[in-house]
Design brief:
mainly alpha; Fic-like fold; two-stranded antiparallel ribbon; 6 helices; 2 strands; globular; binds adenosine-5'-triphosphate; binds magnesium ion
Amino acid sequence: MPLENRLNISNDVEVARAEERLSKTKAKKLFKSGFLDKLNTGSFQAFADIYHYLFAEIYDFTGKTRTVNISKGNFRFAPIMYLEVSLKNIEAMAQSSFDEIIEKYVEMNIAHPFSEGNGRCTRIWLDLILKKELRQVVDWSCVDKNDYLLTMERSPIKDIRN
Ligand SMILES: Nc1ncnc2c1ncn2[C@@H]1O[C@H](COP(=O)(O)OP(=O)(O)OP(=O)(O)O)[C@@H](O)[C@H]1O
Ligand SMILES: [Mg+2]
């Protein structure tokens, strides 16, 4: 089902293409704009601000987290009745070491605050933390998409050293 979008397109494939094109353009702008430097690294507000920057023109984004339970594969992301408290706890999680940062990233993926676009947003959010705390980032061009997805599928059970 195409997610409700602001692009006035009803064809699934067209929506997916337009969404990818627009969000990639936005992501490029985001990195050049200096916007990321102003964010409070590791906070939910930073996540929401990145999300807004990438997707506000695409989805009807009200700043509110999702109000329905969602799943991918066999995994159901955080039940909405726990979502708000979960986001508060994630924000408070330590982020000093690589293992702590990955643990925090895994929990944010499990939270999946919005209906669509969480993966892209979470990867940028993760890189901001890694950059600030460890002066390192992931070279996503070296990450095979299938391996990454398999790792994310395993991550709620085994977050470190997959
Ligand atoms: N079975 C699963 N268990 C846990 N996490 C999953 C599973 N399948 C996907 N994910 C996570 O959900 C993300 C996709 O979520 P969503 O569709 O909201 O984001 P996206 O930005 O549209 O997609 P993508 O990450 O593919 O660019 C993946 O990147 C991965 O991190
Ligand atoms: Mg998606």
